[in-house]
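Sequence in, structure out. First:
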Amino acid sequence: MSRSTIHLPRSARRLLSTAGALALAGVLVVGCTSNEPDEEDNEGDGEAAPASDENSGGSSNDETGETVTIGFSGPEADHGWLAAINSSALEEAEKYDDIDLRATEGTNDPGLQIQQVETFINEGVDAIVLLPTDGASLTDVAQRAMDAGIPVVNVDREFSSPFAARTTILGDNYGMGVSAGTYACQLIEENNISDPVIAEIAGIDSLPLTQDRSEGFAEALSNCGQEVDNRVAAEFTVESGEAEASNLLQAAPEIDIIWNHDDDQGVGVKAAFENAGRDEFFFIGGAGSCNAMDWIENGEMEATVLYPPTQAADGIRLARLIAQGKGMSDLVQVAVPRRIVLDAPVVTADNVDEHREGCFDS
C-alpha cells in the first residue's frame, strides 16, 4: 500500500481561507463548547472580550488544544474538483498546530482505500475523514473504525449505513438542480422568452448525484411551467463533455437555456459551442471552477451553481472538534451535528468576485 504521513503545523496567520469561509453552508461557524464567555475575559471594563483574534473570523475553538491525530483518505485527483477536495483538506490542517494529519495517497480503488482505513484503525488515530471512492464499498470498514471508538467524518459520498459515521458532510446535489432550474425560470421571465427550449447536459446517469441534480432541475422548472426539452449525459470529463454537447447541438437547432452539471466537463462543452458557432443560449454551469468564473466575467457564461470543494476541509475542522470534545457555539445544542448539507448558491456577474477565491482549476 502506498502511503504517506504528513505532520502539518498551523501557519502563523489565523485568517481563515475562503475554504473555511464557505464551510458549513456559510452559516455555522466553529465555536466554543459553551456560549458563555470565560470569566477572565470579562475582567476589566466589564465587557465580554471577542471570541477570536482580531480579524481572524474564527472563535476560541481555533485556539490550540490537545493534539489529535486525524487520518485523511481522499480520491485520486483525476478531476479538478477532486483535486481541490484533497488540497483543501491539507491546507485546512495546516492552520492548526494541534492536528497531526496522516494523509494517504488519493485513490479510486476501493480495495486500496479499505486498506488505508484499516491502517488508521491499527494506528489508533483519533478521527478519520473519508471521502470514499464508493460509499457502499467503504461502509463496513468505516463501521469497524466507529466500533473501535474512532469517529469517522464521511465526506460527499454517503455510506450505506448511518452507523458508519459520526458526522456526514455533503454538497447539495438536489439543491444544485433546484438552484439551476430556479435561475433558468428567472431568465425566462426577465427576458420574456416565450415557449423556451431548455437543454441539460448531465454527468454520469448511473450515479445518484446526477439523478438528484436532474430531479432538482426538473422540479424547479415545473414551478414555472417549463420542462427539459433536450437532454444528454456525459461522464464528467472534457472529452465526453465535448462529444455529448456536439450531439445536443446537432439535435436542437435552437436552444434558449443550457444547464451543464459539471464545470470540468464544461471545458469540453464550451469547446463544442465554439466549434459549432453557437451562442444563442444562456449557459449555466455547475461546481464553480476558475474557468467558469472567467467565462462569467468575460460574458461567455451566464452563471454557475456552486458545489463546494471545501467539504473535506470542513471535515478536517469537524474531526478536530469531535476528537477534542468540542462543539459549535452557534447552535443551542452545541454538539457537532450528525449531518450537514452545504448550500448551492448561483454565481453570476453580480457576485462572481465574492466566490472567485473559492474556485478550483479544471
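Second:
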Amino acid sequence: MKNLIKTLKNIWSIEELRSKILYTLILIFIYRVGTHIVLPGIDPTALGQVAKQASGGILGLIDTFAGGAFSQASIFALGIMPYISASIFIQLMTVLVPQFQKMQKEGESGRKKINQWTRYLTVGVTVVQASAYVAYLKQITAQSGGVMPGYADYFWLSTVVTLTAGCLFVMWLGEKITDKGLGNGTSLIIMIGILARLPQSFLQELTNKSVRSGQILVFIIEIAVLIAIILGCILLVQGTRKIPVNYAKQIVGNRQFGGARQFLPIKVNSAGVMPIIFAQAIMFLPTLFNLTSLAKTETGQGINRIFTDHTNVWYMTIYAVVVIGFTFLYTALIFNPKQISDNLKQNNGFVPGVKPGQPTADYIGAIMDKVTLPGAFLLALVGILPGIAQLLGVTAGFSTFYGGTSLLIMVAVILDTLQQIETQLLMRQYDGLMKSGRIQGRTVTQASY
C-alpha cells in the first residue's frame, strides 16, 4: 500500500503526465454525459423496447462498443463503430490495393492522407448506419409510440444529422485523447463504454446469488475464476515468440556499425480482437432468415434457435471454428514474411542458420503458423467463455466479462495505458509501476483495438 501511494505521488508530481490524465478524464466525462442525452423526438418512456431488442447479436455488440448509448437511443447511439468499420476497411485496402500501399510507405504525409480517407469513409458509413437506425427505432417503437407524433415528419432528417455529428464528435474526442491525452483514444472510449456496464452487471450477479442460501461462496468462486481468466488473457495479449536476428558489422572510417543481436517478436495473438468481431458479425447473418418465409418453417426456426442462443453447443462449436479461421486469415493479411525478409536483407540483417531472401521468408512464415495455431485456439476459447459461464449459472450481463470482445479489449487497452504511464515515469528516472519488470503493451494498428 505504501508503494502504491508513493507511485501515485510520483505520477501526480509530473506536470505533463498529470495534465494528460486530467485532459483524458475530462474528455471521457464529456463522452459519458453524451451517451445519456436522448435523440430529439424520442419519448424516453419507450426506450425499454430499444434496450430489450439490443440485448444480443450484432446489436448487442454495437451497444457494448457504444457504452449502452445504442439501447438508450442517445445522440452517441452509433458510438465509434462507424469509424472502426472505416478504419478496418482502409487497413485492408493498404494490404490489397497498391495505391494505398504506396501512400502507407510515404511516411507522415501518407499517414495523413490515409487518415483523411478514413474520415471521409466514416461520414458515409455513419449516414448509412444512421438511416438504418432510424428504421430500426420506428419498427420497434411503432406499438408504444416511441417517436413523438408532432416530430415524426422531421425525425429521419434530424436523427441522421444528429447521429452523424455525434459519431464525428466521438471520433474527434478519440483523436484528441490520442494527441494530448494518454494515447489510444479510440480504444479508451470503447473500454470506458464496456466498463460502464460492469457495476450494474456485478450488482445484478451479487443480488442474484445473495437471495439464495449458500450461493455467496459460489459468487466468490466466480470472482476468483474471473481473475484467473483475466491473467490468462494478459498472457495471450503479451505472449511472443522471439526470433534472433543478427546484423552484419560495417566499418565506416574509424567507426563500427551493426554487429548487434536483436530479436524479431512474433505475437501469439497478432490479430488482436478482430477475429472475434468478424465472427460475431458472421454468426448474426443466419438470423436474417427471420425476415424471409423460411422463418415459418421448422428448419428456419431451428437455425434461429442455434444462432441466437450463445449457450447452444452448436453455436459455440461453429463460433470457435469461425474465430480460428478468421485468426489465420487476418494474420495473413497484416503479417507479410516476404516484406520482413526484404527489410532484414536491406539492413544487413539475417536469421542465424537461415539464408537471406526467400528461405528467411519461409522460415518466418513457418514460425508464424506454429505460433498462430495455439493463439487461434486460445482466442476461440476466450470467445466462447461467456456462453460457458452462462451455462454454469452466471447471469447474462456478467458473463460477458468472462471473455469475448469485452474482456480482450479491456485487458489490451489497460495494458497500453499503464505502459504509457510507466514510460513517462521511467523517462524522469522514477521507479516503474512494478518492481518485477516492465509492463508490456501491444504495438498494433489503430484498427486492431
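Remark: Residues 56 and 308 are 8 Å apart (CA to CA).
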